[in-house]
Amino acid sequence: MNSRDLIKNRRYLVLRELVGILGDTGKIKVQKLVYFFQEQYSLPLGYEFSMYHYGPYSEELDSDLTAMKIEGHLSIDPDPDGYGFHVRAQDEPELEWGSLSHGDRAAIKDIVDRFGSHHAPELELRATIHFVHRTTKGDRQSVVSSVKSLKPKFSRDAIESAYDEMTREHFISDAES
Question: Residue 155's Cα: distance from chain center in Å?
């Protein structure tokens, strides 16, 4: 098996495990939780994230979700009320994918424990804070200002509160300030 297949299999295993744990979830939530899995836990899946309308987004991740739908591993259906998509696991992982390491399973569990109950806007804000902090290495004030510019729908108080929560949870370090 070549390295491209190994990366694809690991990605599929992580996505299948995450969606399986979450049950009926949304594409935005999957994007943000995979972002944290890769960027916070330094567990490389090879996804490139860039800032998008709802925070960090990976086209490759979206393509993998679509491929998994086509292959019958996930269902992805539009919400009948127009609120995004419902993503659900459809079957067990393929044997050829291998299995997740203990570290991967622990990281997925930790991410779900920390963020699984958050709604998409809360995840959008927290992932954006993390992304801005990681890419700019800015202090609290500069990160909050940058996030406010990127996400004017969030109040400064909400951004500061989420930043402080991320600091307490050790998802960002305020050492630069």
Answer: 22
**Alpha-helix residue ranges (DSSP H) falling in 96-175:** 102-115, 120-136, 140-150, 156-168
E strand or H helix at 78, and its extent?
strand 74-78
Question: Quick one: fold of 1-117?
Answer: Arc Repressor Mutant, subunit A (1.10.10)
pLDDT single digits (tens) 92-144: 777 778 888 899 999 999 999 999 999 999 999 999 999 999 999 999 999 99
Q: Where are the domains of the chain?
A: 1-117, 118-177
Angle subtended at Cα 164 by Cα 56 and Cα 39, rounded to the nearest 5 degrees: 30
Mean pLDDT, the chain cut into blocks of 10 residues (177 residues total): 83 94 94 94 91 95 96 93 90 79 92 93 96 94 97 97 94 69
